[in-house]
């Protein structure tokens, strides 16, 4: 079932796209489990949620999986876990300037201050060379994002974290199945957070999950997702109401059964588009896979280079006219979203993130797209360049 991702930032939800942005796989197994849960009248957290958490954690090589209502809740609760580890309200967490707004919002929702660091335009991820300048005595953690499923530079990030005694929370919302130097993204930091929203590789429609190998962190997560309860009505922490239910977990279990198929189809699509875009390198910076990494394909990013003679808006309008759905390549949260004006940054403070946003877009590579649809994207780009390129 193809869907129009509701996080659309630039384009209206027009009728039908030849190449839709997102999809959701609801398997027969999921339907069977949903019916069973409904028939049993046990629909809140229960055996399917438990099973989903165990299977998800195993899939990504972690000891614990703690499910929640959204990827945003996962990010928020992982941050709030730090109060069990000496953090205080108002402390700082370092995040990339270019990401979905939920990353910054979660830090604030947990009671911390997000400190933004610019990204690199060729990886879209936090620039490790700029992290140390952002560290203060109040910094408690670094929260890198593996944007588009492309791994952040974890060796450099982990080395900085070790040197300054900081925790690392991986925002792996978009990076199911990504690998960095042979390690699973999500298993490198202290905790990792995934979105299970409909457009993601494993989905529960709405939902999120945290993974960790640390027992104390897992206990805090379990308490925090349920109002901070520990034991019988003992409120140990300022908690949240963020539990996953059985129906959502059933959809997730169905997805885990076909995970290899989803991941392999997305990887086939990613590699095919990478191949198509090789010949357009003079015009676009598009997502690339380096030998040390395996992208967990969320979507395909395309940034219009500065010297092409056409604008991102012209390119995106052409794509839309031809039925290729797209989303803006996010924004520099501190300088290009109204809600973060209160931090006092000014345009130009995060030039790389701003450049990616001003000139970037991303299109779908999900499991319901076939090679013909991707070749069609190639044709559309070719036609566009014939008309618009200098
Ligand atoms: C990088 C990133 N972090 C966090 C989230 C929040 O996830 P959710 O929409 O499930 O709350 C998203 C959403 O896709 C995301 O892309």
Describe the 3D structure.
This protein is of the alpha+beta class. It folds into 2 domains: 28-257, Type I PLP-dependent aspartate aminotransferase-like (Major domain) (Aspartate Aminotransferase, domain 2); 259-388, Aspartate Aminotransferase, domain 1. Helix content is 36%, strand content 16%. The strands form 5 sheets. The chain has a 7-stranded mixed beta sheet, with helices on both faces. The protein has a 4-stranded antiparallel beta sheet with strand order 14-16-18-17. α1 (28-40) packs antiparallel against α7, α3 crosses α4 (102-109) and α8 runs parallel beside α12. It starts with a strand and ends with a helix. Residues 3-15 have low confidence and may be disordered. Bound molecules: pyridoxal-5'-phosphate. Pyridoxal-5'-phosphate is lined by residues 70-72, 75, 99-100, 102-103, 145, 171, 173-174, 195, 197, 208.
Please indicate the count of domains.
Answer: 2
Mean pLDDT: 95
How large is the share of residues in beta strands?
A: 15-25%
Report the CATH architecture of the largest domain. 3-Layer(aba) Sandwich
CATH-assigned homologous superfamily of the largest domain: Type I PLP-dependent aspartate aminotransferase-like (Major domain)
Q: How many helices?
A: 12
Q: Work out the number of β strands.
A: 18
Order of SSEs:
EEHHEHEHEEHEEEEEHEEHHEEEHEHHEH
- Helix proportion range: 25-40%
> What is the gyration radius calculated from CA atoms?
21 Å
Which structural class do the helices and strands define? alpha+beta
The CATH class assignment of the largest domain is Alpha Beta
Give the ligands present.
pyridoxal-5'-phosphate
The CATH topology label of the largest domain is Aspartate Aminotransferase, domain 2
Oligomer: single chain
Specify the biggest β-sheet: 7 strands, mixed
Shape type: globular
Question: Distance between termini?
Answer: 39 Å
Strand order of the largest sheet: 3-11-10-7-6-4-5
């Amino acid at each position: 079932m193809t869907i129009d991702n509701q996080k659309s930032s630039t384009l209206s939800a027009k009728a039908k796209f030849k190449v839709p942005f997102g999809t959701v796989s609801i398997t027969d197994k999921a339907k069977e489990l949903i019916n069973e849960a409904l028939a049993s009248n046990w629909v809140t957290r229960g055996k399917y949620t438990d099973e989903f958490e165990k299977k998800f954690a195993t899939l990504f090589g972690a000891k614990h999986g703690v499910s929640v209502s959204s990827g945003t809740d996962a990010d928020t609760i992982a941050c709030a876990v730090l109060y069990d580890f000496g953090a205080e309200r108002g402390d700082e967490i370092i995040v990339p300037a270019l990401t979905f707004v939920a990353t910054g919002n979660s830090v604030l929702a947990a009671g911390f201050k997000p400190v933004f660091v610019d990204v690199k335009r060729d990886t879209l991820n936090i620039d490790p060379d700029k992290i140390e300048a952002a560290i203060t005595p109040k910094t408690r953690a670094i929260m890198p994002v593996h944007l588009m499923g492309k791994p952040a530079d974890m060796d450099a990030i982990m080395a900085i974290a070790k040197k300054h005694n900081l925790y690392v929370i991986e925002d792996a919302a978009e990076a199911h199945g990504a690998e960095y130097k042979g390690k699973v993204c999500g298993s490198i930091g202290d905790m990792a957070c995934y979105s299970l929203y409909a457009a993601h590789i494993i989905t529960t429609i709405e939902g999120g999950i945290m993974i960790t190998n640390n027992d104390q962190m897992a206990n805090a997560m379990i308490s925090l997702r349920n109002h901070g309860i520990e034991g019988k009505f003992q409120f140990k922490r300022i908690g949240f109401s963020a539990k996953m239910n059985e129906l959502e977990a059933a959809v997730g279990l169905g997805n885990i059964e076909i995970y290899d198929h989803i991941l392999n189809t997305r990887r086939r699509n990613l590699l095919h588009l990478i191949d198509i875009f090789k010949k357009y390198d003079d015009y676009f910076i598009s997502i690339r896979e380096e030998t040390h990494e395996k992208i967990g394909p969320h979507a395909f990013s395309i940034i219009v280079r500065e010297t092409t003679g056409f604008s991102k808006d012209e390119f995106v309008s052409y794509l839309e006219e031809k039925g290729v759905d797209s989303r803006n390549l996010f924004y520099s949260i501190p300088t290009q979203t109204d809600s973060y004006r209160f931090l006092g940054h000014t345009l130009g403070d995060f030039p790389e993130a701003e450049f990616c946003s001003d000139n970037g877009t991303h299109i779908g590579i999900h499991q319901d797209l076939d090679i013909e649809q991707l070749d069609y994207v190639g044709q559309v780009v070719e036609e566009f360049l014939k008309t618009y390129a200098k």
